[in-house]
Amino acid sequence: MPSIVVIGSVNLDLVATVARLPAPGETVTGAELSRFPGGKGANQALAAKRLGADVTLLACVGEDAAGEEALEMLRDEGVELGDCRFSEDAPTGTALIAVAPSGENHIVVAPGANRQLTPESLRLPDVDALICQLEVPTETIAAAAATFQGFFAVNLAPAMHVDVAVLQRADLVVVNESEAAWYGDSLSACTGMIATTFGAAGAVLTKNGEDLARAKPPRIEPVDTTAAGDTFTAALTVAFVEGQAPEQALEFACAAGAAAATKLGAQPSLPTREDVMELIGAD
Ligand code: RIB
């Protein structure tokens, strides 16, 4: 069983399903409101767990009811949370998400306690892989990348400046199309693999500018694409730690991401390995 530590965000997602996404300055009414546990770090941790890994999450939530609600699914499903922090003065992170019938979304995050996941006294367990994203302070990611010895995957989401040493150290960088455009030439600092996702059009895996693999997801009816990228990142990391070849690993990750887009909400939509294999088999 692969062992993975995830350093990242925990949010409570407030999700409005709406007939269409509003334009800037526009009000769209008639939405239905739901709440789901989310946050890129928490989603990636639970996705890896459901895909069969042994997972520890290092995160920071507020000492509030939202924090308990946001951690509940992780706790129930056996993600190790013993080293998570609880802030006395910042609320649990909140994401405001609007989802259109096409599955497309708009997300605004108020990070709250996620900002307090600073590098001081962060204890990294001795595991096969580390997964990070950028919803917690980037100096925490840089400090972890500098000391971790195993397979290091970083999902550069949301796009923001990161220390070049993080890009140089990463065995795997994951970006979507718009993040790839935002980083542009700075991604040439990466010495490991880069996986770029293109939604329903699939993903490309490269290393030093050369293609290693290309894959397309199985055809699905999208309901909500929230956490599809998180699931892709977790699945690709699990696959590489298991020793899968690039083609097979990318196909697995694309199918896992697609599976996550078939249900509403972040964590309720994360697939098990059986779900992913069934989707690959049905294609
Ligand atoms: O990647 C999806 C996640 O982004 C949501 O769960 C939301 O919390 C935001 O962090």
Task: Please characterize this protein's 3D structure.
The protein has 8 helices and 14 strands. With 283 residues, it is of the alpha/beta class. The chain has a single domain (3-9, 39-92, 114-282), classed as 3-Layer(aba) Sandwich (UDP-N-acetylmuramoyl-L-alanine:D-glutamate ligase), CATH 3.40.1190.20. It has an 8-stranded mixed beta sheet with strand order 4-1-9-10-11-12-13-14. The chain has a 4-stranded mixed beta sheet with strand order 3-2-7-8. The chain is globular, with a radius of gyration of 17 Å. The relative contact order is 0.16. The site of alpha-D-ribofuranose has 16 residues, from strand 2, helix 1, strand 8 and helix 6.
| DSSP strand tally | 14
List the bound ligands: alpha-D-ribofuranose
The CATH superfamily label reads: Ribokinase
Overall outline: globular
Regarding CATH, which class?
A: Alpha Beta
Strand content: 25-35%
Instruction: Compute the average pLDDT.
Output: 97
* Unreliable residue runs: none
Number of helices: 8
CATH architecture: 3-Layer(aba) Sandwich
Radius of gyration: 17 Å
Order of neighbouring strands in the sheet with most strands = 4-1-9-10-11-12-13-14
Order of helices and strands: EEEHEEHEEEEHEHEHEEEHHH
Task: Briefly note the CATH topology name.
Answer: UDP-N-acetylmuramoyl-L-alanine:D-glutamate ligase
Terminal CA distance: 27 Å
The biggest beta sheet reads: 8 strands, mixed
Number of structural units classed as domains: 1
Class based on secondary structure composition and strand pairing: alpha/beta
Q: Portion of residues in helices?
A: 25-40%
